Amino acid sequence: MFALPDSWVWDFWLADDGERYHLFFLYASRALHDPDARHYRASIGHAVSDDLEEWTRVADALVRGDAPAFDGLATWTGSVVRHPDGTWFMFYTGTSLTPGGNIQRVGYATSADLMEWQKSAANPVAQADARWYETLGTGQWREEAFRDPWVFADLAGDGWHMLVTARANTGPADDRGVVGHAWSPDLRNWEVLPPLSEPGQGFGHLEVFQVEVVDGKAVLLFSCTAADFAESRRANGTTGGVWASPAASVLGPFDIAGAQLVTDDSLYVGRLLRRRDDGEWVMFAFHNIAPDGSFIGSISDPMPVRWEGRDLRVTPAAVPSSSR
User: Fold this and answer.
1) HSE of 160, CA atoms in CB hemisphere, 13 A
2) Which residues belong to any copy of the Glycosyl hydrolase family 32 N-terminal domain (predicted)?
């Protein structure tokens, strides 16, 4: 487990440089007292490990920029990929607070060694396009959602794809969550494209995507709390948590309406990783809600995953009994 005694830790992403594993995570000081306040105080921390269980914290990766930068409020969730020339790219969410609400856009930073990062002067490189996506003030949502970039290489060698948490510009206000999509030929220049799913699947938003091919089957992971379900899904009493949607390919089609719950809301933000030593797939998540209802804010040990028919199953790790 990865935990910080003086800070909450939540959303995270992983990278493997071939020798060590790297954990990038959002964190904020517990001196805030209110865990809901953490989102506007988030920085991106960094830890390394040889075995995915014992982690050593190193220098932080990124902090927010100075207003009016696109990340002038906070730096949020992202992903890391390596360009063929050896450069590491970290795509991340930048948030800025306007009189109308929170606007989320995507930027990137680069590194030669995963340790020291330089933000791109071109930021932001992707944001909600009103042709397909809800923008601030045009819907009935608390923010302009275009965040949590998951970037991966096209399997056919045709550039790079980015999946983002986004909302469609049509449909009931509580049921607009979609798989946002952008494409790049080189990781530096991005074209925002129509979403890869339709609204009306039962979710107000789909958070923190990851798509992988696990034992020959494509699967999309996302997270959503019960508070952000559409009314149609809230009515059946399902808890929130980490969800898995089997897919025809890494670009869909995705059966969002038929997604299966992988964990309940004691865990949140599922991340799959294939271990280097044995080739087995495992999942991590952050410890979210304790049995006493408090927010925990730490990251689990690796949890084995397996397919049971069309459902992805995980063997949960122990969840701390309280937030301390």
Assistant:
1) 21
2) 19-232
